[in-house]
Amino acid sequence: MGPDRDPDWFWEVLDATRPRLSALESWLESQPRDVLEAFALAYESAAESLADFSEGVSVDGDVWSEDGTEDLCRWVVGQGYGLWSPVVAGDLPLEEVARMYLGRAPLLPEGGTPWDGEVSDPAHRGYQSPGAIVQGVYRTRFAEDLHERLAGM
């Protein structure tokens, strides 16, 4: 997948469930295994389309680590298509979005309301972001690690 192949339903689900993480959790719990896998792959693809994590992103003279850059890109995806699209198109520099992420710049209206971080199932605590909740739901429902499952495909 890539910026032109991320399924429309993926963005629609994020928009429809935001800002309630428990709503996304509930939606994921009602879906079959292949939809959870497709959701996770679309999320990763959308994040990877924003930057090469290993190169980092330079913000105010500091180059972020690979993990920090990945976290930023996953956060952008979680904000929805309205923020992700201008970043992937190059119309909004990732460096500026990083300032939003850090609270140094106002979040654009396209970024919407922040996720509330609340989950219904206590087993999903620790997976309290829109990109991570699919991991917790998958583990709970199928007693299998989603990363390992996808790596073996």
What is the total tally of β strands? 2
Biggest sheet statistics: 2 strands, antiparallel
Note poorly predicted spans.
none
Give the mean pLDDT: 92
What is the strand arrangement across the widest sheet?
1-2
Distance between the termini: 15 Å
Helix content: 40-55%
**Which class best fits the helix and strand makeup?**
mainly alpha
CA radius of gyration? 15 Å
**What general outline do the C-alpha atoms trace?**
globular
Assess the beta-strand content as a share of residues.
under 5%
Provide a count of the helices.
8
Topology as H/E string? HHHEEHHHHH
What this model shows, in words?
It contains eight helices and two strands; from the N terminus they run H-H-H-E-E-H-H-H-H-H. With 153 residues, the chain is mostly helical. It has a two-stranded antiparallel ribbon. Strand 1 and strand 2 form a beta hairpin. It is globular, with a radius of gyration of 15 Å. The two termini are 15 Å apart. The model has no long low-confidence stretch (mean pLDDT 92).
